[in-house]
Structures are given as structure tokens and as C-alpha cells.
Amino acid sequence: MNSGFIKTNCKHNTNKTLLDKARDINCSSIIHILAEYQVTIEFLHSILACDWDRASIIYQHENKFLKIDSLDTIHRLTFIRTYSKSLLESCLDTNSSKPFEILYSSPKTKINVNVLCTDGLPFFFHCFDEIISDDIRKTMLLNGNMYMKSSKGETILFYLLHLYSEKENNEYLKIFTNILYIHPLLVSQRNEQEQTIIELMEFSRSTHKFQPFYDAMVNMLKFQLKRNSIIEQFILNQFGYYLLIFFKNKTLQMTKYVYKLIRSLKLNQGLPVLISNMFQAIIDDDLIKFKDILKIKSNFFHAKDSFGRTSAHLAVLYRRYNILK
Q: Structure pTM?
């Protein structure tokens, strides 16, 4: 370990290194932590100083010490900020592609692009910033958790819609469509206003502008009509009502089970009723009825109400300890 590599920023004992302070309190576990963080902090300071030569040298020779984890709490040790800011977000602040080229130059380094930035957005949402190259953007999207939401409860689909509203770049539509077909259940996710992406479009003043996105979702839903499990999950996520637009379309091809599911929505019977009864059983603290419904369909446990709350959420909300247990 290089004990003199980093000096602390504290006003007191300014001649002591972080390692010296760790030795003072005789804590071996902290020494091990500092062994990893010393170079990382130096690397971070190089990024903040936009000293790319220095950052590259540190990264090249001390790569094994760089730990870029989900929390990236290393920034707290610099005493610069009163809140946690990730190394990746600090790289964004430089408005340069260079730090990302350094970080992504080694395939051995695992970068968690799902860390939440101080602006409330998961880091991979920032892959559309101009300083991010196409190759790094693809890597970030590939490793991003598409079901992760911003602090406003919005998925990447909502964010792409916002970007398109500002810049009207068709590239956002292409990415939006690709994500839809890989993760179809994203359309059932709700923001903090309890709106799905489709509801956001329908209530928007720019409805006509979002028509290509709306068409992309309708086409994706048509494509899913042959997949029993996906349609069932749409209904479990309280998104089944939207599927009713296909009920009278005789030209669409769907499985018999899917047709039965959509018909049950129209007639308000079967699966939708059981889901509603399960939620009511939780509210009434009727454990026997709750168990009986789960015996009929065990995956009802994952069902959501119109506010996006699962049975576990309701059990906590109404303090139904036995049901939660």
C-alpha cells in the first residue's frame, strides 16, 4: 500500500494520510478499506481536475484498486460535498468524453450504470448526453436495468418521451421501440402520478407529437397477443383494460387463452374479479379467503392494484401482519 499517496483535506492533522488516521484508531478493517480507496480518490481528483494523463496512468497501473460499485461512496471521503455523488456523475460534470473512455477501456472493470445520480435519474439515463459516444451508449443501455425508475417513478420510456418532446430526434423513437419489444411489461409501469406511459400520452397537450410512440406501443401489444403469459401479466399489473381495444378486432390473431382473458375483462369476470377479491380480502383482514385465492393462482401474489401496489404493499398499508407473514 502507498501510505503517502493521499493527504486528507481536514483542517486538523493535515500532515497525516488517511492510512495514518486509520492506524491511529487501530482498526484493521478500515485499513483494508483505505487500501482500496486511496487510489480511487486520487483517480477521482484527477477526473475532477480534468487531468486525463494522470487519470490514465493511475487507471493503467492501479486498476485492481478501482472499485466502482452501486453506491460509489468514495466521493464522501473527499470532504467536498455534503451529499453523495457518484464517480460516474463526477465524470459527467467534466463535459468531456475522456473519463468515460478511460473507465470503459478495460473489460475487467464492472461499472454499475444503475447508480442513482443526484438529479434523481439512474446514471444510464444520461447515455443520451452529447459527450457519450455511440459505443459507450450501447454498452450503458445493454447493462441498464430498464425497470429501474427515476425519483419521479419514471422508467427509461418516460425519459425518452421527454427527450423527444424537447428535441424531436427520431433516434429516441428507435430506441424506445427496441426497448418495448425486449421489455413489453414496461408499458404497465406507472410514474408518481400513477400514470402509465400510454396515459401520459393521452393526457398530454402534445398528443399528436407522440403519435409514433403510441403506434409503436399498439403494434407491440398486437405482437404479444400470441403470448399467454405476457398477456396474463399485463392483467396482473392492472394494464388489461387497455387490451380491450383489440376485443372487437376480428382480424387479429390471438390464442384461445388470450381471447378468454380479454373477454373476462369485458365481462368483468374470472381473473380480474379474483384479483379484486384478493385485494379486498387483505383490506378485510380475511386470511382464509386470501389463502384460498392464492391456491387458485399462486402468481396472484405479484398482482398490482390501479396504484401499482402489490398485495404486500397493501398488507403493510393496512397493518395486516398475518397476511404479510
A: 0.73
